[in-house]
Amino acid sequence: MKLCSAAVVGFLALSSEGSAEDLGPFQTLFDYRSVETQTFLIVLASVDEDIRFSVMLQNKETGIRRYHEFDAPVPETPRPFQMEESSYCGTLVVLLTVQYPWRHDWPERVRTMETYAFRESDFSFIDVADGSLTDIALADHTSYELSDLVMLPPIGVRCLPDSARKPFQFFQRITK
Fold first, then answer.
1. pLDDT tens per residue, range 43-74
2. Which helix (H) or strand (E) holds 6?
3. How many CA atoms lie within 13 A of 172 on its CB side?
4. Contact 148, 122 (CB under 8 A)
5. Contact 119, 93 (CB under 8 A)
6. Residue 10: phi, psi to the nearest 5?
7. Does 153 map to a domain?
8. pLDDT by position in tens, the chain (length 176)
9. E strands in 120-173
10. In a domain? residue 171
11. 53: left (phi over 0), alpha (psi -120 to 50) or beta
């Protein structure tokens, strides 16, 4: 009986782990250093012993792969926190929010997160914003009335005229 129970528990553990091949169209698999969907694979890695880290983005359907290196605001390799595919200023983008592990007693920082924007077609880097996706307004700042601005998050998106090079930039709204 114990052997049968162990076999059932083992089977359930193996089947509940899931894999990238089993992901549905709206599912995302997060682990310590990567994010994976049916279409994308994003891997974060430390570049050196200081504060540089890399982001590797891969489109699993087309095979396009691109690497970017960034400086972290703290001397820790970030972990993926949130990923979203979206459209800003007429450009399809992949937004990746990373969270930095907290091992220091720095009173000036409570939680450190950054959101990186990459063009979906070629994974070129567009911009980075302090904060998570939940802090970013989901539309161009010109589409709001002045009375709406008080209800918007502190980080917004500003469309740029040269959209072929850089379609938008994040900006920090000044709040009173």
1. 999 887 778 999 999 999 999 999 999 998 77
2. helix 2-17
3. 10
4. no
5. yes
6. -60, -40
7. no
8. 444 434 433 433 333 445 556 777 778 888 889 999 999 999 999 887 778 999 999 999 999 999 999 998 777 788 999 999 988 888 999 999 998 876 656 555 556 789 999 999 999 999 999 888 777 766 666 667 767 767 777 788 888 887 678 999 998 876 55
9. 125-130, 136-140, 155-159, 168-172
10. no
11. beta
DSSP string, 51-120: SEEEEEEEETTT--EEEEEEE-SSSS--EEEEEEEEEETTEEEEEEEEE----S--TT-S--EEEEEEET
- Tally of domains in the chain: 1
CA atoms within 13 A on the CB side of 109: 15
Whether 17 maps to a domain, the answer reads no
User: What residues make up the domain containing 81?
Assistant: 22-135
Angstrom distance (rounded) from CA 30 to CA 98: 12
Residue 119 lies in a domain: yes
Determine how β-strand 168-172 pairs with β-strand 155-159.
Answer: antiparallel
Strands 136-140 and 155-159: parallel
Torsion angles phi and psi, residue 5, rounded to 5? -60, -45
Q: Is residue 57 packed enough to be buried (19+ CB in 10 Å), middle (13-18) or exposed (0-12)?
A: buried
What CA–CA distances, in Å, run from 11 to 6, 8, 20, 31? 9, 5, 18, 22
